[in-house]
Amino acid sequence: MTSILVVCSGNICRSPMAEGLLRHAMEGRSGLHMPSIRSAGTIAMEGTPATREAITAARDRGVDIEAHRARRLTDAMIGDADLLVCMAAEHREEIDERVPEATDRTFTLKELTRLLELDTSSGDLAGRVAAAAAARAEAGVTEADRFDEDVVDPLGMPLETYLAIAFELEEWTQRLAVGLLGPVAVSAEGP
Description:
With 191 residues, this protein is α/β, with parallel strands linked by helices. 48% of the residues lie in helices and 10% in strands. The chain contains eight helices and four strands; from the N terminus they run βαβααβαβαααα.
C-alpha cells in the first residue's frame, strides 16, 4: 500500500487539517487502493491533541480531526513514506538534511500540486511523484520560490485565521488529489 506523510511543525494545526482534508479528497478517487495518509511534526509533542481551532476549522470543511494526536517526525517515518507533503519549505529542508534519500519524494503541498498540474500524463502515484521530482530538478527552485510554497502556521491566531487556512488547505488538497490520482469519474447516468 502507498503511504503519504503530511508534515508540519507541531502536528496540531496545519498537518492534521491537511491530513484529514487530503484523505477526504482522495476518497472516491482511489477505490480499493486508498493510500495510507498520516501526519507528523518536526517538533511535535507526542500525544498532544489538535487545537480546538483546528478541529473547528476542519469540521467547517466537513472533516473530523477530533481524535488526532500529535506524532513527532522520525527518520523511520520518513523512510517508510512513499510521499512526504510538507506545509512549509523549512519542513522539506529538514527532511532533506535528515534523510537525503527522501529528497525526490519530499515536497511542499503547493510545490507538488503545481508540478503535477504541469504534467497531465497518467500513471500510478509513484510514477507521478517521480515525474514531479524530475520536473523540479529540471526547473530548479529559487530562494524567492521557496516562501511562495508555505502554508501559514495559524498557531496562536484567532479562529478566523484557522478557517482561512482550512479553506486554503481544502483547495490545495483537492487539487493534489486530482494531480496524484486523476479526477473522479462522472457517471453519464442520471440518479
